[in-house]
Amino acid sequence: MSDHPCGNCRFYTDSIWQPLPACSVSLLSKNFTRRELAAGDTLYHQGSECRSVYCVSRGLFAIRSLGPDGTSSLLRLAYPGEIIGYRAFLKGSEHSTEASALMPSRVCTVGERDARNVIRASPAVLARIAKRCADGLDQCRDRLRSRETVSNKDRLSELLGRLTEAFGEDAEDCRRLRLPMPRQDLADLIGVAPETLSRLVSQLERDGVLRASGRRIEFPAAPRPKVARR
Amino acid sequence: MSDHPCGNCRFYTDSIWQPLPACSVSLLSKNFTRRELAAGDTLYHQGSECRSVYCVSRGLFAIRSLGPDGTSSLLRLAYPGEIIGYRAFLKGSEHSTEASALMPSRVCTVGERDARNVIRASPAVLARIAKRCADGLDQCRDRLRSRETVSNKDRLSELLGRLTEAFGEDAEDCRRLRLPMPRQDLADLIGVAPETLSRLVSQLERDGVLRASGRRIEFPAAPRPKVARR
DNA sequence: CGCGCGCTTGAAGTTTTTCAATTAGGGTGG
DNA sequence: CCACCCTAATTGAAAAACTTCAAGCGCGCG
Predict the structure, then answer these.
(1) Lowest-pLDDT range, A135-139, A193-197, B8-12, B156-160?
(2) Is the CB of B165 under 7 A from strand D?
(3) What digits encode the pLDDT tens for the residues A28-44?
């Protein structure tokens, strides 16, 4: 643990690189790098080949799909503790999406070839990456499902609540968030047109769930933002 | 190949159990079983623990999610050649969905413990299962995406076209399918209410894309059912 | 201070849902 | 083989939700 590169990480206990026999730890350490990204920086591009496996250590990433016609849409967010780029790694194909930082962020990186070497020595690592992939599948199915069972308003409320919980700060009598993305991205995430998103936000304000102004969102400091009744 | 249990399978070249060193082949063979299911038979139940990894060899499976309130909804179909039950296998958890046969079907089964033994000897097998998982993730994302970019009518047309291609038979001047599931299931698959589905089918008939009566669907024998222009 | 882009607002139109009532199909038993 | 029955499917009408297009506003940056 002492010399494990993830040893001091807040997500160490859930790390895919842990546990590892000592010989593999040194192999890992040699090829383990951290990278800081400013908001807007791109971690990997759509269509580029898989060069690494990344673990989000701090910040927030947008996973986007770029249409052939130049349109781009935000598919999902990657929060700290999540692995990204594993899909291309597991399939041995190029990235089908691009990942960019939405706020100052940090990723821990293990090169593709090095990762495969670690896995050769410790196949349990592959099993853990596969488990993350299955988690991703579950999430994706949940979203597909909630698209059909939960109203757009409630889904927006959940999304903003989650963002606020993760990145907001406590102010007097409320919890305050500076939105790390434009409205268009929020609209993509819940799957509606930007105009509809704007109206949904207004409704949530009218319902007293939150206050919004520009990029500032405030949840009244109930013990915790409720998941919107009805 | 001669004594590989998948050796005669139509999907052999893509089998997750192949290639395999000879010693692993014999380990696999000992614990490999085929199972025939009648339409309506359940392969595994939601909440049951993962006892095997299954490969659909013939027929069609419905992967359903049962709500706590007794409602059930069809999440996806599994066609021949697909692996099912891998999610629970990879996560080491119980099944979060149930799988049941929609028509007379056959699955090839490898017990959970045996599968892990094969993997221990041949980690490449795990990599192949993980790849299938990543494929599943891609599919799921495609559906999420197409939900927002393709009209419900076109998505229905694609679905029926795919079913007809896989399970239909050629009649004079058309390709004919007997639907292996009720309308409610079709509605679940494209994510609309059953009444809407009924109206979408009517529209497709009016457009001349297909003819439908009860469970019989006919696509006029254009070279192949096109994926709906427009 | 002004300009521009992103966001909001309004109004009209489309699509889907919902509820309720009717019809059709497929299987069963006479 | 036919009549019947039950469930599944269809249809209709009204309401809800969302989209689209167009115009106006305002925040933030230079």
Answers:
(1) B8-12
(2) no
(3) 888 899 999 999 999 99
The CATH class given to the B12-146 domain equals mainly beta
How many Å separate Cα A104 from the centre of its chain?
13
B211 touches strand D (CB under 7 A): no
User: Residue A191 is nearest to which of B135, B141, B148, comparing CB atoms?
Assistant: B148
Output the average pLDDT for chain A. Answer: 91
List chain B domain ranges.
Answer: 12-146, 150-220
Q: What is the rounded average pLDDT of the residues A116-129?
A: 94
Q: Of all nucleotides in the shown strands, which has a C1' nearest the CA of B205?
A: D10
With an 8 Å Cβ cutoff, are A147 and B191 in contact? Answer: yes
Task: Report the predicted TM-score, pTM, of the whole model to 2 decimal places.
Answer: 0.90
d(CA B206, CA B156): 14
Whether B104 has its CB under 8 Å from any CB of chain A: the answer is no
